[in-house]
Design a protein that fits this description.
3 domains, two-stranded antiparallel ribbon, 52% helix, 12% strand
Length: 486
């Protein structure tokens, strides 16, 4: 009888604790969107026109393809040459001319397989764009939109061409600008890099697509790392991870952490700060290294780059360079979509005027040194983006990221265990700074994303079987829209 009473008391105590742990956290509210307008292409008819031209070009004879490629090459090279001659801001002011020259060439280049010159023209064009943008105020909405259209749009055109080749085995490295640097150097994936370089990358996890597309200017990158190279040539990357906060990684560790692409950005050698001190980028890397060695820096889920007590990935580079006199992200990132704000706030984000990885490419203070792709993962990159774009559209229509409330007590127990792990110096099962509720919402998001992606992938297989080519991005988005679970 005494045993039964004890069991009943224990059961009652368990029920009381379970019910207490079921009490939901208070929802933070009152977030205001950034005062901005999300970028939209509004070119659906143009995309379909390009797809039709590609399908027609595939049926042409080799001789006819060669003739058309020669014609488009001459026209594109003439457009680029005219911009190099006519003035400082001409390419930005006449962005549609350059953009459509690439779009016009893309279908026949994709059908012919003669891609090398097209990629060379692309890199020549983006060198020109970056040089001309350095005299512009990128905080002006029109200027920012034009630079974005060019750098993002030309990349999109080139990648569509690459993905239509029979075997996606192209040179993974695109060398863009040989920007001078006085800081120590090393080589990563065949690219000469210098201390103080910033590497923006795209990971393979669901959250990577979430970050790269969650912006008024959806991009291709989800992570930023600051490179430090010592005098012996040993390279390390200082970066903030959701799981463990700011940490140091070897080059091998950096590359093993799945990368679909990365791009090397470097401060321009003609910046006044670098003319005065050419070693400034190395000093910035040393600043970040010293700070990460001095204290544990947790991950900043709030994305507040004004408060360096915690840091998100962009903030590592931003903090180090700001401390040394160069304010990066001359045009800050804005998130004004109600759906994006709703989802991001559910994961702890509180600042919607911030610094997103993709936007660093458009900073006029930085040169694009080189870009590296994983050729076999390029289509995965596009598929992931399309799925995320379709999900964000649903977010704007009111879709919420919910969670199983009955699992909240279990998640809270796991969170306590994770805090103990953090105290002992280990990453927790639930990351430091992430609540139990946010962890459950993350599980819901991952499940939603994977279900949508799997259904989209099945549609891709059917498209390829029928059309005999890979679906372009706009087709992927259409497939993803039809694949979002009800």
């Amino acid at each position: 009888m005494r045993f039964i009473k004890r069991l009943a008391v224990a059961l009652l105590l368990f029920i009381v604790i379970y019910l207490l742990l079921l009490i939901p956290e208070s929802e933070t509210s009152g977030f205001k969107p950034a005062t901005a307008t999300p970028f939209t292409w509004n070119m659906d008819a143009r995309w379909q026109e390009l797809q039709t031209q590609f399908e027609e070009a595939r049926l042409l004879s080799a001789e006819k393809k060669d003739s058309l490629v020669t014609k488009q090459r001459q026209q594109l090279e003439q457009v680029i040459s005219s911009f190099e001659i006519t003035g400082v801001v001409s390419v930005i002011e006449n962005h549609f001319r350059l953009l459509h020259a690439f779009f016009n060439a893309a279908p026949i280049v994709a059908a012919s397989g003669e891609t090398d010159w097209f990629i060379d023209s692309y890199n020549q064009a983006r060198r020109l764009i970056k040089v001309q943008s350095k005299n512009m105020d990128v905080n002006q909405p029109e200027n920012r939109a034009n630079v974005y259209m060019l750098l993002y749009g030309l990349r999109a055109a080139v990648e569509e061409v690459l993905l239509q080749q029979d075997t996606v085995h192209f040179n993974p490295v695109q060398h863009v600008t040989d920007e001078p640097s006085a800081t120590p150097l090393a080589v990563i994936q065949g690219i000469k890099v210098h201390s103080g370089d910033l590497l923006v990358s795209r990971g393979g996890a669901e959250v990577s697509a979430f970050i790269s597309r969650g912006n008024d200017y959806p991009g291709n990158f989800s992570h930023v790392a600051l490179l430090h190279i010592d005098e012996s040539g040993k390279a390390s990357l200082i970066e903030a991870h959701i799981e463990k906060g700011v940490a140091l990684a070897t080059v091998d560790d950096y590359l093993k952490d799945k990368k679909l692409r990365f791009m090397v950005l470097r401060p321009r050698a003609d910046l006044p700060q670098l003319i005065e001190n050419p070693m400034l980028p190395h000093r910035a890397a040393q600043t970040a290294l010293a700070e990460s060695n001095r204290r544990h820096i947790p991950y900043d889920f709030k994305m507040n780059f004004y408060d360096s007590s915690a840091m998100f990935c962009s903030e590592v580079g931003s903090y180090a360079y700001r401390k040394n006199g160069i304010p990066l992200w001359q045009a800050v990132s804005t998130i004004s979509s109600a759906g994006m704000i709703n989802w991001l706030s559910g994961f702890g984000v509180e600042n919607f005027v911030t610094q997103m990885p993709s936007d660093l490419e458009y900073d006029p203070q930085l040169s694009i040194v080189a870009e590296w792709y994983d050729p076999e993962a390029l289509f995965k990159d596009h598929l992931d983006n399309a799925v995320m774009d379709a999900l964000y559209e649903q977010a704007d229509k009111g879709m919420k990221i919910s969670y199983n409330q009955w699992l909240l007590p279990v998640a809270r127990v796991i969170k306590v265990y994770s805090l103990i792990q953090n105290t002992l110096g280990y990453p927790g099962i639930i990351p430091e700074g992430m609540t139990a509720t946010q962890a459950l919402k993350n599980n819901t998001f991952v499940e939603l994303y994977q279900r949508t992606r799997q259904a989209t992938q099945e549609k891709v297989y059917r498209f390829i079987a029928e059309k005999k080519y890979r679906p372009p991005y706009w087709e992927l988005v259409t497939m993803a829209r039809a694949s979002v679970p009800d």
